[in-house]
Amino acid sequence: MMTESCRSDSLPGRAIRSIFFTLLIGLPIPGMSQSLIDWVDKNCTDCVDRMASTTGAYILEKGEEALIGRAWLTQHATKSIDIQYFIWSTDNIGTLAAEQLLVAAERGVAVRVLVDDMLIDAEGKTLLLLSAHKNVQIRIYNPNMSVGKTFFSRIWNVFTQFRGINQRMHDKTAIFDGIAGITGGRNMADEYFDFDAGYNFRDRDILLLGPAVSDMQDNFEEFWESSLAVPVDALIDTGDQVITDADARVKAAELHAYASDPLNFEPEIRNAIDILPEAFPTLLRKMHWQPVTFISDAPGKNDGQAGLSGGGQATDSLFETIRNAKHSILIQSPYLIMPRGGIELLAELNDRGVEIRIVTNSLASTDNIPAFSGYHRQRPRLLNAGVELFEFKPNPGIQTELIARYPRLANNNPVFALHAKSMVIDDRLIFIGTFNLDPRSANLNTEVGVLIESRELAEQLKDSIERDMQPENSWQTTLEFAPDYVVERSKRIQLGFINLLPIEPLL
Description:
37% of the residues lie in helices and 19% in strands. By secondary structure, it is an alpha+beta fold. The chain has a nine-stranded mixed beta sheet, with helices on both faces. The protein has an eight-stranded mixed beta sheet with strand order 11-18-17-16-12-13-14-19, with helices on both faces. The radius of gyration is 22 Å and the shape is globular.
């Protein structure tokens, strides 16, 4: 059972147009001819010197900031862009991101895209047309369920490769010229950037400059060269139909026309293009500099000998970090199903005097009822272990701030759910990445993230998570009170039925 949004690939035809329509339409930008490293050197007098030994980090809390960071870096990259995502949708953000990567390729940037196979929704021919450009390469990770597969081959794989179809690449990284990178919870779809009309995720990324990006690049190369990463043209049988250069040019023209059509974006977003040249330098100047540890899994997660168990490098790193906590642990995770031994570890820490607080989705906000069912069964044990639990509301007070630039979106009163995966340990050590506290992230999906020791970033992240825990944004759940009752009866009945199924290792 996928513990990422299982609704994320039913996205075409969104009424609300994303900020990418203005940030990524390929308009001229001052300094475009400069290399990225030259621009950094010019606009931050000591950044290049700092990058030799430490990593700059800036937490991207709002979807708008996360888009600005990606947009600016995409437009300023001069050598390479390497992209790795679990979900890349064909909604507005997905389409415009693909268009802007094509713009980069057309100016000579080498573009490589690696996407997991499970939830990809682009047509095979579209993928082939994009990859036909000489500077674009697209590979699909673990292609056993979607790209190039017939209905019957999918059914066969379910029965013959059960662990294989459940082992997914949950990584989310974007690397620009090998010196700047972004990682965190956001997939490439509208709702991860606060621009969906009906359902959005409260998410978090982190922008990096420096040595940690080299580690991120090494991890990308390991996945790119893995036997699990298969070129898209090796997966799709076009029969006698040949993808010609003319076909590729027609598709490129369609993408560019769509991106530059003023009817495709909201009037309020036009103003955003005026701030783009200043917005990214502002993020740069707000960076904190310190050593950063990039954690990751190997392709395949583990050797598979333990079936649906087995752990992984990211799992070991995170649980060792939790185990070494001295006085406090603050966690934000959209899905909370502690792997084997996890609740016992939390109880042991509580007995040692460690304060443990976790905010996760409520039944009312969750996008994934099967995942919530695992948490629902564990909730009494977590509370008895001394964990303070908070459950995010579907219409939190914070949503007003997140979508403040877009009043029409606010009028629709979209549901918000948590999707950020973050931790603060002892008010000094933070984690931001892709790892959910569930068996799937622990044992099946490959994961990435960063561990950073920084009092300043810890204070910033703590303030953000604690704000999400406030009464206007979350309910505090106790042994006497749980907010399950606020949802409609049909959803509670669905939860009760799923609770009967032995699916916890897949959650």
